[in-house]
């Protein structure tokens, strides 16, 4: 072999050693979660699954999207009604359930659950009456109840006209649109009707699903929304965000103080000011028919249901971090969609329940140092 060929061979061998060394380094880095093919290895995303009430579905969807965009866990939420959410969390088919009807303390204990309010909103009677715009139709509690009982059958009924002098009401049959599924929205609405009408309480009652005297049923808030939009002369009830998003005509409803009020953030807030959260075991609070001149009469909370004993500490922590974010930075998003954020004092009560009740492998999941702020709800505009 010539000297030139020997030198070339040595150069090739050195190049081969350098290539092998580089491959070893890249492989080690890739296995450590660093770089593969020059691209940073993606962080594994935690997926948290929830199901339940359609009442808060618009805000949960917005929160989930914003949280994930900011590097948080992926939240998958299905609006299947409060009844479905309760059944799925009891069966441990989801990580959390959501219900607009709070579970009684005894039932929570029986299934090893905790519940806490995450957002407050209003249930709104909406109509499709030709020539009548939103906020023009006034109804008293008696009129609303008798319409849903089927005792008032036409919009030009003398009792309706007496409360709405000067409003041109058509001689049209009234069609009732209600929920066909087990629903926390129905629980809030029928609880209100039961409070203001002994006849309703006796004949129909308050529950997630009731035997409606009249009408047609739709699944979820979206189903009732579509029915009201399509059926002339109809009246139904939906969460306020659905009424706004779909430009439905809502009523002015007479409250406990005798004032006709419309559904707004302020009227929802007024309704929850008198709630005694501190003395309500399991946060079992009914916000319907609250006193106050500005109070909206049909107001409710949406509750989160979780198991006390969690299987995966890491996943449980990520779930609580999401709810913590909702209480803090998520409040401005809630207000934009006309939901009422939970008051700061209530967040403090909720966090104390997290610390004392949520465990995994007998260890506390949410600790004092976990929260980024002592009272994140006070930073609603961050």
Overall description:
This protein is an alpha/beta fold and 382 residues long. Among the domains are: 3-40, no CATH class; 122-283, Periplasmic binding protein-like II (D-Maltodextrin-Binding Protein, domain 2, 3-Layer(aba) Sandwich). The protein is 40% helix and 20% strand. The protein contains 14 helices and 18 strands. The protein has helices at residues 3-31, 57-69, 82-90, 105-110, 141-149, 158-163, 184-196, 198-203, 220-230, 240-245, 265-272, 313-327, 331-336, 344-357, and strands at 35-36, 39-40, 47-52, 74-79, 96-99, 113-128, 138-139, 175-179, 216-218, 234-239, 249-250, 252-254, 260-261, 299-307, 309-310, 340-341, 359-360, 363-364. The strands form four sheets. Strands 3, 4, 5, 6, 8, 9, 10, 11, 14 and 16 form a ten-stranded mixed sheet that branches. Strands 7-12-13 form a three-stranded mixed sheet. Strands 15-17-18 form a three-stranded mixed sheet. The longest helix has 29 residues, at 3-31. The chain starts with a helix and ends in an 18-residue tail after the last strand.
Question: What proportion strand?
Answer: 15-25%
Specify Rg, calculated over alpha carbons. 28 Å
Low-confidence parts lasting 5 or more residues at pLDDT below 50? 13-42, 373-382
Terminal residue distance: 75 Å
CATH architecture of the domain at 122-283: 3-Layer(aba) Sandwich
Number of helices: 14
Helix content: 25-40%
What would a concise description of this structure say?
By secondary structure, the chain is of the alpha/beta class. Among the domains are: 3-40, no CATH class; 122-283, Periplasmic binding protein-like II (D-Maltodextrin-Binding Protein, domain 2), CATH 3.40.190.10.
């Amino acid at each position: 072999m010539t000297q030139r060929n020997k030198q070339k061979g040595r150069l090739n061998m050195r190049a081969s050693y350098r290539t092998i060394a580089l491959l070893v380094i890249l492989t080690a880095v890739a296995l450590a979660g660093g770089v593969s093919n020059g691209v940073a290895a993606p962080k594994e995303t935690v997926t948290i699954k929830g199901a339940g009430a359609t009442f808060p579905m618009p805000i949960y969807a917005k929160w989930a999207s914003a949280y994930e965009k900011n590097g948080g866990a992926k939240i998958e939420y299905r609006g299947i009604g409060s009844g479905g959410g309760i059944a799925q969390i009891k069966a441990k088919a989801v990580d959390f359930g959501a219900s607009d009807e709070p579970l009684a303390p005894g039932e929570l204990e029986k299934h090893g659950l905790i519940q806490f309010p995450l957002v407050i909103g209003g249930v709104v009677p909406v109509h499709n009456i030709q020539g009548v715009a939103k906020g023009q139709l006034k109804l008293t509690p008696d009129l609303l109840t008798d319409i849903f009982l089927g005792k008032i059958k036409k919009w030009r009924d003398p009792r309706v006209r007496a409360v709405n002098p000067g409003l041109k009401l058509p001689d049209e049959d009234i069609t009732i649109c209600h929920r066909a599924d087990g629903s926390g929205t129905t629980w809030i609405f029928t609880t209100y009707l039961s409070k203001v009408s002994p006849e309703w309480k006796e004949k129909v009652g308050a529950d997630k699903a009731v035997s409606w005297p009249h009408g047609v049923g739709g699944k979820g808030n979206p189903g009732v929304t579509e029915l009201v939009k399509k059926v002339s002369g109809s009246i139904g009830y939906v969460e306020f965000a659905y009424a706004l998003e779909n430009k439905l005509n809502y009523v002015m409803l007479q409250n406990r103080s005798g004032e006709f009020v419309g559904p707004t953030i302020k009227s929802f807030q007024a309704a929850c000011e008198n709630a005694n959260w501190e003395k309500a075991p399991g946060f079992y609070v009914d916000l319907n028919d609250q006193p106050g001149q500005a109070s909206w009469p049909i107001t409710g909370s949406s509750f989160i249901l979780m198991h006390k004993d969690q299987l995966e500490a890491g996943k449980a922590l990520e779930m609580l971090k999401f709810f913590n974010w909702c209480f803090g930075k998520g409040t401005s998003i809630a207000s934009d969609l006309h939901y009422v954020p939970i008051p700061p004092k209530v967040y403090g009560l909720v966090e104390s329940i997290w610390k004392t009740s949520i465990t995994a492998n007998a260890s506390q999941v949410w600790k004092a140092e976990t929260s980024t702020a002592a009272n994140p709800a006070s930073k609603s505009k961050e």
